[in-house]
Amino acid sequence: MRKVIITVAPTGNVPTKEDNPYVPVTPDEIAEDIYNCYQAGAAVAHIHARDENGKPTADPKVFEEIIRKVKQKCDIIIQLSTGARAGKGKERGACIELKPEMASLATGSSNFPTAVNENPPELIEYLGKKMLENGVKPEIEAFDVAMITNVDYYIKKGVIKPPLHFNLVMNVPGSISGTPKNLLHMVELLPPGSTFTVTAVGKSHVDLIAMSIILGGHVRVGLEDVLLYSYEPKVLATNEMLVKRAVQIIRDLGHEVATPKEARKILNLA
To answer: Is 3-266 CATH 3.20.20.70?
Structure first.
């Protein structure tokens, strides 16, 4: 049986408690939610930080506090976000110096619903080199097809090194839509030897994480991407509920859920 990695993205930069009261915002809330998801089957935690007002922040002190609290509870793989909503410049890479096992790296720009997901070439190079220097494995965030094909350029420049791990982010308004055909196309473009996770936003979530498993990939769940467990009837999700559903889908498809130790081997972290 193949081992499938579950990544949980508990917070993100956008959701608020007004959107869903189960969104964790403070370091204590985030760490506790990650621990509950770890117990349910998550092997990787994709972490965003919020300031004292609940706004996105790239402040490494906040990330450091979250990491410390998570490590006190479990050995889940910590993956920090360097995403555009927390800043526009090099400050987004400050958390890399904390030497997490992984960090996100978008290899191009795309659109969000009301803003640009801005990742200029010089910033991509800066973040990629900083990850290399600190022994941090990048997760290549691909919101569109060009973010996959663009990777060859950065490999040749020595900014990132194979074997690569991708997160195929689908159904964000303004970027690639979440259809099975689009997912198949993205998977077919991946460099040989790559591993991949699928993040499917909103109503495409369940279908595409199941398809990812069928195609040999892994899955990401969490309130960063999905606020509702079901739409009809409308049921608010918790991170733990979303992890447990992913566990059930993986098992129903005849596979097993990877532990953090197993995930480290699959992702070439061990």
So the answer is: yes
